[in-house]
Amino acid sequence: MKCVICKQAETIAGTTTATFERDGMTVVVKKIPAQVCPNCGEAYVDDAVASKVLSDAELAMASGAVVEVRYYLSPLGGKRSESVL
C-alpha cells in the first residue's frame, strides 16, 4: 500500500515498537509485525495485531510493573518479557 503520511513509497513488511504509558507505568512492545514505509518510517498494523498488542499491554499494566518490555509473538507462541522495577 502507498504510505498515507508521505505519499512517496509503497510500504514493506517489517516490525515496529509501541510504547504505552498509564499512571506512572510504561509498557514497551517490540517486534510488532507491520507494514513500514521505507521513506518516512510510518508503520501500519492490522486490526488483529493491534487488538492483541493492546490486550497484552493491558495485562502487563495489571501486573503492577513500573516498566515492562515485551516482544510480540504470534498467538500460537508463548510470551517473553523482561520487567524492570
List the helices and strands and how they pair.
Blueprint: E1 12-22, E2 25-36, E3 43-44, H1 47-62, E4 67-71, E5 80-84
Parallel strand pairs: 2-4
Antiparallel strand pairs: 1-2, 2-3, 4-5
Strand content: 35-45%
End-to-end span in angstroms? 41 Å
Helix content: 10-25%
Radius of gyration: 14 Å
CATH fold-level topology: Ubiquitin-like (UB roll)
Count of spatially separate domains: 1
What's the total number of strands? 5
Please work out how many helical segments DSSP would assign: 1
Task: Tell me, rounded to a whole number, the average pLDDT.
Answer: 88
In the CATH scheme, the class would be Alpha Beta
Q: What is the annotated CATH architecture?
A: Roll
The unreliable regions are: 79-85
Gross geometry? elongated
Structural class of the secondary elements?
Answer: alpha+beta
Order of helices and strands: EEEHEE
The biggest beta sheet is recorded as: 5 strands, mixed
Q: Can you describe this structure?
A:
The protein is 19% helix and 41% strand. The longest helix is centred in the middle third of the chain and has 16 residues, at 47-62. With 85 residues, it is α+β, with helices and mostly antiparallel strands. It is built from one helix and five strands. The protein is elongated and about 40 Å long. The chain has one domain (12-84): Ubiquitin-like (UB roll), CATH 3.10.20.860. Strand 2 (25-36) and strand 3 (43-44) form a beta hairpin. Strands 1, 2, 3, 4 and 5 form a five-stranded mixed sheet that branches.
